[in-house]
Amino acid sequence: MSRHAPAPAVPPGAPTGFGNAACRRLTTDSAGTGDPALHKATVWHLYVTSLQQIRDKIPRPPTAKRSTLLSRLLARSSATTAERPLLEGRPPRLPDGVRVYAIGDIHGRHDLLERIELAVVEDLSRSSRLVRPVLVYLGDYVDRGIAGRQVLEHLARNEILEGIPRVLLRGNHDLWFREFLRGEPIGESWLQYGGEATLLSYGVPLDPKLSLGQRLGRAAEILAERVPATHLALLDGLEVAFALGDYFFCHAGIRPGIPLARQSENDLLWIREPFLSWSGDHEKIVVHGHTIAEQPQLRRNRIGIDTGAYSTGVLTCLVLEGTDIRFLRTVPD
Predict the structure, then answer these.
(1) pTM of the model
(2) In whole angstroms, what is the distance from residue 136 CA to residue 129 CA?
(3) Rounded to whole angstroms, how far apart are CA atoms 273 and 282?
């Protein structure tokens, strides 16, 4: 079937949504552990997504200007052979025909999120064959950057990449924000690590005339009135991990030596060591953010893609297909 062939009819019983639940079904059945009939229905449903329909929704400049514009905004690169992760001595791979776009820590940079999503659309338009794309966002949508509210609204509306299956993972900053909204006493530590930027994005200033406790209490009251239900639903629906093929996606990493199925949420959202320095094998190659590095970190057992977007202007998207590993990245203005 060609890339622009008419989409087949959805068979009876195919999933109708493209949220996290649909992606979980894809994960389970692609691994061969689920119902074969459901796997077939899920694959058919993913083929219904028309790349042409997605591209047609986005106003873009003529081809020559578009290429020039993208070259200014984006950098593309591929992993070298020496950098490649290995799983039991072989390159990790995804199920045939699946392409994953994993987007690193956004931290209130709505401008960069729009750029990288447009880059995904452009990347799909360049594909010479039909692929089943899956989006994985690694969390930390808020704090530090000035547009946390706009990022959550963007993700809730999902207009640029509507129709593509996606998984939204929870980061430690997203957890902090949600706990503050629930009245948990974490406000002081949250503010130390960028929470004030999120408050300001919702138009909630901190009154310097009040004590810290009073400032936080007043901010929580105003914020509760200004955060829409759609943002709360998005935050409450975030996943802590996602697995597909030979890859395991989470925000921060895993605790070495513990099976993936038994990892704690605390480690998945917060861990650094001993995960970062661990040289042994895991069950799958771990794709994560959380720990900032100037360049994407390719190690034998993990791939880190937090490139400090909120301060560097570089938001990284890891692209996985078959055994291929490459990157899309925004370029600082």
Answers:
(1) 0.82
(2) 21
(3) 15
Q: List, in order of start, the domains of the chain with CATH numbers.
A: 20-172+229-330 (3.60.21.10)
Which 3 state secondary structure label does DSSP give 305? Answer: coil
Other C-beta atoms lying within 10 Å of the C-beta of residue 205: 12
Q: How many whole angstroms separate alpha carbon 23 and alpha carbon 102?
A: 13
Structure tokens, 219: 């901010």
Task: Compute CA distances 324 → 86, 203, 206, whole Å.
Answer: 12, 43, 48
- Nearest-CA neighbor of 198 among 141, 237, 236? 141
| Most distant CA atoms of the chain, gap in Å | 66
State the CB neighbour count (10 A cutoff) for residue 313. Answer: 17
**Cis peptide before 274, with omega less than 30 degrees from 0?**
yes
Nearest to 231 by CA among 133, 285, 151: 151
State the amino acid at position 14 in one-letter form.
Answer: A
Of 57-61, 128-132, 141-145, where does mean pLDDT reach its minimum? Answer: 57-61
Whole-angstrom Cα distance, residue 129 to residue 125? 10
Return the H-helix or E-strand segment holding 135.
strand 132-137
The Cα 330–Cα 282 span in angstroms is 30
Residue type, 266: N
For β-strands 302-304 and 285-288, DSSP reports them as parallel
CA dihedral 194, 199, 202, 208 (to 10 degrees): -130
- Per-residue pLDDT tens over the stretch 172-217: 999 999 999 999 999 999 999 999 999 999 999 999 999 999 999 9
Compute the distance between CA of residue 76 and CA of residue 48 in angstroms, rounded to an integer.
28
E strand or H helix at 117, and its extent?
helix 110-125
Whole-Å CA distances, 291 to 35, 85, 125, 192: 37, 18, 32, 17
